[in-house]
Amino acid sequence: MKIYHRWLLSYLPAFLAIVSILIFLFFTAMGNYSKQQAVKANEVFAQNILQTLDSLLQYSEKMIIKEVLTNERIRLFYDGGQWSDPYENYEISQRVRDLSTYLLSIDSIYLYRASDQVVLTPNTMIQLDQFADHSFVEYANEAKSTRAWSEIRTFREFQGDGSSQKKVVSLWKRIPLGTGVQGLIVANVQISKLEETIRDLLDSDLNFLALSDAKGMPILGEVDDSNKVLSEVTSAYTGWTIQSGFKQTNTYGYFASISKAWYAAVLLSVLAGIVWLFLATRKHYRPIQLIESSIRLYTERNLNETSSGERQDEYHFIRKAVDDLVQYSHDYEKKVEESVVFRRKLLFKRIMEDTEPLLAEEWDQEMKRFELTDRISHFAVIVFEIDRYDAVFDAYSGRDQNLLKFVVSAAVGETGQQKNTQVWCEWMSQKQLGVMIMAEDGQVGGEDGLQSFCKSIRQWIEQNMPFTVSCGIGSVIDNHQYISRSYLEALEALQYTSIYGCNATISFKEITTPPQGHALQYAEQIRLTAQAFRAGDNKWEDQLHDLFAIFISAALRREDAINCINYFIFALDKECKSLPLGLCMIWEQEALPGIRDKVKGFVKIEEVEKPIAQILRNLTEQFQLQKQKRISHKLILQIKEYIETHYYNPDLSLVHVSEIFQLHMKSVSRLFKEEFGENFVDYVAKVRLEQAKKYLTEENSDSVQEIARKVGYSHAITFIRIFKKSVGTTPGDYRKSNRN
Fold first, then answer.
1. What are the TM regions of this chain, as residue ranges (predicted)?
2. Most CB within 10 Å of its CB: which of 70, 109, 532, 640?
């Protein structure tokens, strides 16, 4: 007998016995589960009813608030007084009636104006003390409740009209909504309308439901003592509580009680099944034990298992051995896959850079290995370059950069599929993606097809990525041995982004490659422009503009443009180093770092001219200011010396000095103030008074009048007044005090 049948016959009796017991227990558990589900369903039923009521009342509240905020007539009603326009009041009452009609849940609405104690209803406008619901208005004015809706109450509009009172719940809002000093708006919802709303839910032979307000007063239905409450839900909005349950809970009761004899029979059956399983397991464990022993023996021999003395569970040991085998297989497959990706990239670079040409047989072999068709007859290479790579990618981590590049590669591949074009793309550098377009029998699409392919990718990247790319297109070739030529042409086309700018498609056929070293012919013009700036020539800006115009018209390659601009910076640095020390420091510390920062990472030549011109313009202004300061300092020292030697001249004044030194009076005054921190007139007076003090302290000195004349004052009175104002005493008293 097969082992399968032996095991089956061994475990089948125990299995049948245990299954029978489980079936019995299953139906018992199902009874409990049914009751639990019934309780949950009842709770959901109560929540649905409460949500229905809350939604109805919330919608009514929002519409009332909207009407208060947007209806100009209602605002005018609360702003007006006893002289308000009756027609306006009629219009407002009609609007209130319309609102009650529109909101089906609302039974009635009335407005209360606090300024003159007037209540406006859809039917009349009366004083508060004559209004049948005046007690609720007074309660609403004084109430501090945070809930929007009142407890259940009775409402009647007119006193003594014989009409029956209605059971309602009321919404009240103070006007204005922020302060409530102008009055109230009250909306009443009749309990019967709420009952109509949920009538379909209440008409059930199975469920019962009771709704009570926040104070426990019944609104709809009551709880019968014969019924058992299974769910109780309270609304956070109104504070109302719904109690619900089943009218006949015994329908979902438990199964009949199980006798002790049945329990004993179940227990004996389980014990018999356990013994049976134990014996059968012991009998059939032997083969498994042999398998485990064989695996352990092999492991100890090949893996040098540690001799810790601990014995693992057999199934765990076998499972671990199988898991190790699966993991080893997975790692091997992963390494093979990584090897394929790496080899594919190396092959792509080998083809593009032509480091080791592929023979025809080797080409066919590699194409089959990487699942590329071997019937390709035409090729074209496109290089996509990320514009302003350093400025864009510095903000991203290495992981994010790799993710962005993966997205670009995926976009290229998907675009190729959409255009039924076979593409092979790999990243050749940090910012350049090489793409090989492959087709059979000239299906590349020519120049127009390549332009369309590049345009689709550029537009997608511009719309979905945080950067743009420029495309260089090489020529279409019909031999795989010349793919590297098309790649070099694509790289050469990208050199002309200095002319075309960012997010451009440049075909090699569109450019004219200048001769090698042609940029050297601009060296002399660069030196002359730098020298003109150093010499302070007024036409240096024109020369700078002409120089960049030459660069643009010459259609310089990006590499040549960078070399020319760097040479211009070098020439400027060389010329400015011959400036005086102060000016040279301004150039080295401010201007030169600024220029280098502005030209870093530029794409088009036009982007460089304006920043360089602005920096040099600011530098020229600083040079002029420094030069002016040096000339002014020398001149003002000469004026100071002249004052100190000609103080005795009564004509020594600002006008006199201006004429002597051929300067404007304001210039002399400003320079003198800036240099010495005092006015010209005050300085002249100080020099004269210092000389007068010397004369006054000499023995046998002249009279005060004579001393005044010697120091440049034609009138002694003027001298005495100025001396006393400055020194604090008269010249005569000064003489006496100093002689004593």
1. 7-27, 261-279
2. 109
Once rounded to an integer, what is the mean pLDDT over residues 700-718? 86
Whole-number pLDDT of residue 250 = 47
Please, what is the Cα angle at 556 between 552 and 562, to 5 degrees?
100
- CA–CA gap between residue 152 and residue 213 (Å, rounded): 7
How many angstroms separate the CA atoms of 484 and 475, rounded?
11
Q: How far apart are CA 435 and CA 416, in angstroms?
A: 10
Q: Which residue shows structure tokens 């150039």?
A: 587
Q: Which of 9-18, 49-58, 446-455 has the lowest mean pLDDT?
A: 9-18
CA distances, 116 to each of 176, 183, 187 (Å): 16, 10, 21
Dist CA 285 CA 279 (whole Å): 10
What's the CA gap between 620 and 532, in Å, rounded? 12
The closest alpha carbon to 486, from 347, 353, 350, belongs to 353
Residue 432, CA atoms < 13 Å, CB-side half-sphere: 17
Averaged confidence pLDDT in the chain: 79
Q: What is the 3-state secondary structure (H, E, C) of 621-685?
A: HHHHHHHHHHHHHHHHHHHHHHHHHCCCCCCCCHHHHHHHHCCCHHHHHHHHHHHHCCCHHHHHH
Comparing CA positions, the residue from 325, 125, 174, 151 lying closest to residue 240 is 151
Residue pair 434/442 in contact by the 8 Å Cβ criterion: no
End-to-end CA distance of the chain: 150
Digit-coded pLDDT (tens) for 415-437: 988 888 888 899 988 889 999 88
Q: CA-CA distances (angstroms) from residue 421 to 113, 436, 439, 454?
A: 79, 10, 7, 13
CB contact at 8 A, 22 and 277 = no
Buried b (16+ CB within 10 A) or exposed e, 634-655: ebbeebeebbeebbeeeebebe
What is the distance between the alpha carbons of residues 524 and 503, in angstroms, rounded to a whole number?
33
For the chain, the residue count is 740
**Is residue 611 reached through a cis peptide bond, with omega within 30 degrees of 0 on the bond before it?**
no
Tokens for 505, please give them.
Answer: 């498609």
